[in-house]
Structure formats: structure tokens, C-alpha cells
């Protein structure tokens, strides 16, 4: 896991060309999403509103909800490493993922309790994003 050294605050993940089809990504499919890089590229192609807030290198992306969930599970270890290098710690708040729930909503995860949520619309609410540039999930 390689995290950006700070959060991107007040980001919303709206796009200029939201997919007009009516779709829903249910929890059981969302939680298995580890394709944040591909999803961020797809959102960027559709005019991602906060793309200008992401780091300049194309290596950085918004984690998928499955990636955020693993980060939540490892939060204390990640924060120890971030503290050691003097980077901003992961906050106990809501973070957007690049996993869309529907055309108007994306999955969020709270680093307070690990809850997943889709209630907030992408266009009306701004939350944090913590870009990553590499993510290799643990395997058993």
C-alpha cells in the first residue's frame, strides 16, 4: 500500500457525463471491488469533478471500496507508519471510494466504525479522498 501523504478534502466524485443507465452495485459486489485505479480512470474519462485535486502523477487514484475496507482494518498500523514519516494520519471520518453505487451515488466508508454507506449523492456532498498509488491486498 502506498498512500498519498495528505487527504484531499471536500472532494465530490461527480462526473460531467454520468452513466444514464439505471444500475445499482450491491454491497456483496462492492465489498469485493479492488479496482480503484481502473474505476478512477473511468470516472476521469467522464469528467471527474475533483480530478484537479488529485496528485499530478497519473499513478495516484481513488481507492475502491474493497481497498478502503482493508485500509480501515489496518488503520492503526497504517497510522503508525504515517506518524513515523510525518504524514497526515487517516482520520476517523467518511471517505469516498471510486466504486459507484449508481449513477448519482458512490460508496463511502467511515474510518470511525468501518461502516459502508451510499445515502449521500455524489453531487451534493463533499467528503475526503485519500489517494493511493499502489495496493496489493493480502492473500491467504
Overview in brief:
By secondary structure, this protein is an alpha+beta fold. The protein has 4 helices and 7 strands; from the N terminus they run E-E-H-H-H-H-E-E-E-E-E.
Question: What does the model show?
Answer:
By secondary structure, the protein is an alpha+beta fold. It has helices at residues 27-30, 36-45, 65-73, 75-85; strands at 2-3, 8-11, 94-100, 106-110, 116-117, 127-129, 132-134. The strands form 3 sheets. A 3-stranded antiparallel sheet has the order 3-4-5. A hairpin with a 5-residue loop joins strand 3 (94-100) and strand 4 (106-110). The longest helix has 11 residues, at 75-85. The mean pLDDT is 85.
Task: Output the number of helix runs.
Answer: 4
Largest pleated sheet: 3 strands, antiparallel
Q: Low-confidence spans: pLDDT under 50, at least 5 residues?
A: none
Measured on Cα atoms, how large is the radius of gyration? 14 Å
SSE blueprint and pairings:
Elements: E1 2-3, E2 8-11, H1 27-30, H2 36-45, H3 65-73, H4 75-85, E3 94-100, E4 106-110, E5 116-117, E6 127-129, E7 132-134
Antiparallel strand pairs: 1-7, 2-6, 3-4, 4-5
Amino acid at each position: 500500500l502506498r498512500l498519498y501523504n495528505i487527504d484531499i478534502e471536500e472532494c465530490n466524485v461527480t462526473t460531467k457525463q454520468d452513466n444514464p443507465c439505471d444500475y445499482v452495485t450491491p454491497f456483496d459486489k462492492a465489498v469485493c471491488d479492488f479496482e480503484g485505479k481502473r474505476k478512477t480512470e473511468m470516472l476521469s474519462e467522464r469528467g471527474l469533478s475533483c480530478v484537479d485535486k488529485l496528485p499530478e502523477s497519473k499513478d495516484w487514484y481513488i481507492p475502491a471500496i474493497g481497498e478502503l475496507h482493508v485500509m480501515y482494518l489496518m488503520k492503526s498500523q497504517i497510522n503508525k507508519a504515517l506518524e513515523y514519516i510525518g504524514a497526515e494520519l487517516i482520520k476517523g471520518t467518511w471517505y469516498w471510494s471510486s466504486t459507484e453505487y449508481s449513477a448519482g451515488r458512490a460508496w463511502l466508508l467511515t474510518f470511525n466504525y468501518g461502516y459502508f454507506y451510499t445515502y449521500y449523492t455524489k453531487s451534493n456532498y463533499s467528503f475526503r479522498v485519500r489517494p493511493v498509488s499502489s495496493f496489493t491486498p493480502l492473500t491467504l
